[in-house]
Design goal:
This protein is mainly alpha-helical. The chain has 11 helices and no strands. The chain is globular.
């Protein structure tokens, strides 16, 4: 029996349709004004907390922070397993192109999983609230990425882009490890692979872009320039496809910039410190 079937056995009957499938203006957070209001409130809250905490001692909140991270890590893992369970048979039976571009690949179960992933993005906004309460710096990349990803997942639900599972699955895989890292490090564990998380995120966006640019190209050439080489139509709203391409591209460049500023700069500083230490040692030896 599939994992999804086991879990569904515990779901009570009579749940409204708009809570199990995406219905515009009925499903929670399914209108642009609601999403904009939520994200505007997010920005107001985190910068408001930052202003209030300016003259306050940072809060520890270690237990709550660890609960938050273990929930997101384990929740991401469960959702990833459910999505793989749903997508793998589609790829096996119909091929990769069908699974990313055909309307039939937007199944009811996947739509529900996309909805859960979408709501995860609002829970993840608490990451920034914890940072603000702990008086940690609110980097542009962090704030932009969290708020824009909620908007991205909303746009793909609205646009019903069949290619969504690729981007979401990779993101969930990274989040399983990322939130585990936050949980473990908050408990005092020394994690050596923090740098590799950023590398994984960069690789994630590179793979994402190969898929979404291919799907967008195939759709537009099939629809408007059929004489150009293409593999056929790719399902989903054009606005959602273009928005996804643009936002994921910005993520790639921002994360590459973050990688070089954080890790390469740190290595250079360590190298300079080591060189200065050797120089000072040599000078002291000569002086003696």
């Amino acid at each position: 029996m599939a994992l999804a079937d086991i879990l569904l056995a515990y779901v009570p009957a009579g749940i409204p349709e708009h809570l199990t499938s995406y219905v515009h203006a009925k499903t929670p957070m399914s209108t642009t004004p609601a999403v904009v209001a939520a994200l505007t409130s997010y920005l107001a809250i985190i910068f408001g907390i930052q202003a209030v905490m300016k003259n306050q001692q940072p809060l520890k909140l270690n237990t709550l922070f660890r609960i938050h991270n273990v929930f997101l890590s384990s929740g991401s893992l469960l959702l990833l397993v459910l999505m793989v369970e749903e997508v793998a048979p589609i790829v096996w039976k119909h091929g990769l192109f069908y699974s990313i571009c055909n309307e039939g690949a937007w199944t009811p179960r996947l739509e529900f999983y996309y909805m859960i992933n979408y709501y995860f993005k609002y829970i993840e906004l608490l990451d920034t609230v914890f940072l603000a309460l702990k008086k940690k710096p609110l980097q542009f990349l962090h704030v932009f990425h969290h708020s824009a990803t909620a908007l991205l997942t909303y746009s793909q639900l609205e646009g019903k882009t069949s290619i969504s599972w690729v981007v979401i699955s990779l993101n969930l895989a990274v989040h399983v490890l990322m939130y585990y890292y936050y949980w473990a490090s908050a408990g005092g564990a020394k994690i050596w692979w923090k740098k590799h998380l950023t590398t994984m995120q960069i690789v994630q966006f590179i793979i994402d872009l190969h898929f979404v640019y291919f799907g967008t190209y195939s759709h537009f050439t099939y629809s408007y320039w059929p004489n150009l080489p293409n593999m056929g139509n790719c399902a989903g709203a054009e606005s959602a496809a273009v928005f996804g391409c643009g936002l994921l591209t910005s993520y790639l460049f921002l994360f590459i910039d973050f990688y070089f500023r954080t890790y390469k700069k740190s290595q250079q500083q360590k190298g300079k410190a080591a060189a200065n230490g050797k120089a000072n040692g040599t000078a002291n030896g000569k002086a003696q």
